[in-house]
Amino acid sequence: MQLAKPFIRLPLTADASRLHAEIEQFGPADWRAHPQGHPGNTALPLVARGGQPDDDGVAGPMRATPHLARCPYLRQVLAALGAPLGRTRLMRLDAGAEATAHVDTNYYWSQRVRVHIPIVTTPDVRFLCGDAETRMGPGEIWIFDTWRPHNVLNPAGTQRIHLVADTVGSGAFWAMTHDGATQARTIPYVAGADAPLALESTNFPVVMSPYEFTAIWSGWQKDAVAANAPPGVLQSFDADMREVQQDWRAAWAAHGDAPGGWPRFAELVRTMQKAASRYAGAIALGNGLDLARLVETALAPAMHSPGLAVGGTVSVPDLGQAPAKSDPLAAVALAPNVATPRPTGRPAITRPLIILCAPRSGSTLLFERLAACSPDWLTVGNESHVQIEGIDALKPERRGFASNVLEASDATREVAADLRARFISSLRDREGRRAAFGVDALRLLEKTPKNALRIPFLRSVFPDARFLYLWREPEESLSSMIEGWQSGQFVTYADLPQWPGPKWSYLLVPGWRELAGRPLPEIVAAQWRATQEHLLRDMADIDPAAIRALNLADFLAKPDETLRAICDFAGVTFDRSPPAELPFSMHTLTAPAPDKWRTREGELAPVLPALAPVAEKARHFVAVRDLFASPAKPPQNLASQVSVAPAAGAPAAAAGLPTPDSDPAKFASVHTHNLPEILRYLNTSLLVTNYQGGNLIALRADGATVNTHYAHFAKPMGLAVTRDRLMIGTETGVREFRNIPSVAQRLEPPHRHDAVYIYRKHHVTGDIDIHEMAIGADNECWFVNTRFSCLCTLDADTSFRPRWRPNFISALAPEDRCHLNGLAMADGKPRWLTALGATDGAQGWRANTKNGGVVIDYATRDVIVRGLSMPHSPRWYRDRFWILESGKGSLATIDLASGKVETVARLPGFTRGLDFVGPLAFVGLSQLRETNPLTDIPITDENIDRMSGVWVVNIETGETIALLKFGDAVQELFAVQAIPNVLYPDIVDEDDELLQTIFALPDDAYRDVRYVPPAKSA
Known about the structure:
By secondary structure, this protein is an alpha+beta fold. The protein is globular, with a radius of gyration of 31 Å.
């Protein structure tokens, strides 16, 4: 809601300490992740739709959840607001987290203000709203202007918890917002008092009244005037909107919100949306939002929502609210290809169909006819510019207007969740009605030519997407593109920096700046060619079963047959044939005619020959992936694959997963069906060292399987990796790699990899048995020198530089005196280490492997915890000390003050190698050698099937929710490391021929480089 000021403090104060005491009763299971998956953001629902804590919807009767009944004073505080409450929650922000900057735009927020009451906070917590900033004290009660960009930052080292309530207010409530209106008072606690709460029952109109319609538009129009919108454009837009308002008032007078008037209201909504589309990008409001897109995505969906009248069960998420989806973190049976159960009643986009094409290929005509032929299709009504480019991280201006290209790496967890939410909040059916969200699966039909440059990104956001490639002959597309540029109706970036004109139309291709001053036929030819090249490259990487191709001429010749075939491919119902003669699409400029392009034949003649090779490749792709033909099967050359996945529905053995027995299968792996989805959900890949087999293994999500990519090294053990740097401890030293992402275009498949670690140097240490490694805050590489019982760093002149050793180690000697092995970092510095014994004689630790393990404090060099069974992989995560007791096959936490060990999970193997992402622990498991001398450890006493692989454990419940088991060739693991925000890495070592032609230069030298193409062989 817009307010006169960014922040207003109400003259009420709550007892924060009493509120804190009440919420202390809630445990981890009561808190829920943020709907958009923002890291460090959790909530505990107090008032929710139907009183259901897991329902984030905002449309329907609001009721108290069971949590609220347990908080008497909290109820009294809410009652003191004197206003009906909408969705109300406790919102928790972890140390160092933020709420993510955003603007609340949809209808729900046009009517409501958000009340904040800090319960647990510090003076470091900052609230930003527009250009203003404030700090809210414990127990203070504030509201703020959600129409302005706002955010919350928590740089402190503690959590922040606020009571947050949404309300439309009341006369008494708004009276408290006037300066000096009432005297400040503290809300008292009254023991035994039952504070009655007013809760919303009606919050969305079935049909918006014309008076509310006029009020909302008038407010936005005034905002546009204040933001210095172009007067002529705004006047024209206002005239179109007022015409719709007049017709809306007439329809309201005749029907009110009765069902008989719904078709007319739906027609007027479509009219308004089409009118708004003509002004896309032309008018920016004071908060940076585009007025036309705001009309399409915030106003139009709320104007006519008859589905909301059915029992109040329809969810209308916030524009920025994440869609509910199948939770990849849910526990599943430990067998391959077991689908994760989907929660019911929470919508998710399933198998969307995305049309891919160059501009002016006839996609709008196809899209409109396709959307009308099935009741299953849901669309955002037009092209999705506002949904995608409305996300801050994806805005072209934030990316230097480089291009509209988006890669898989751009689909971070937060961005993907935000985008899915934006789509869901805008979906409507073919009648223009808001989508009915009572079902789990929503079938999205999407068409935006810019998506031709975003295929890897879209595949990451929608892993189960299907694609339809629409082809139109280049001369026809180019002629229509020239007409569109000249019309001014397809302007996408009116004030493109460094572009002299005309105003840029259609998609922004890489290298667009080089087109400045060129004739228009050359500009559109470059747009078309770059688009098709991106399409052909990225479509080649799509599973043949998930893509079809269509020639526009075939659609025009047999529209009914074509639409039926598309619906069959997408798996939706076809129930309405197109008219015998297809009507013009909404973007048609002049009537189509055979060979219409020939009116520009002279302009196009100079540019068409250069496009011929690309056009021929495209025609070949259409022939191979033709909509009316069976899809080609992918090659089944398993010998060329490093790893193979189990067949669908492969049975699990009674004691675990099947063990491959053929030679190629020794390097195969099997995994639970949800593991690829988990990796994509976390936007993460894993690196694992297998020193017994001499392998560094990358675990990468690849469709419905996990690709296990092997790189060979001599006894790889310790591992340290960031997005930019990879360090591997081997038998003779430390190998260093640097990430050069641009090399991805030279790998197979091209552009698939989002990180490529290139070999740079080998620091020879000799055989010192390097165990754990870490890259510190100062970018220094620390490693555990197990043979010399010390912690070291690299030194250019020596084998290694000893930096630390335990107090009980009397001298440096290559005798493995205590089997120092683990290193835990905190704030980028060494903090704790582990050893298998506090012994000072050559291999003295072997005398007691059962419970001789210790934790050592780096600062004091003293032992602080004893009695552990072969401790490995110490970690400091979420303010807790974690450890693997390998001898027990466990993941545990330790209270360092008391030394108390609490087992979180028991696993079927020798646990070694640990990393965390979000609420999940990735734990390495090794088999014990048949001739292992460690016969006194607990794990050897148990009759279990010990396995080798990576187990995924929910650290909040201790449940194993996924796993990957290696074949016989991989028996012992050491390190497991996650690479956040990297989905598909590769490693290029010194024996790779590619290394001969990869050059990395300093920035100042790079500016002088000129590309010289390689000489062609005779």
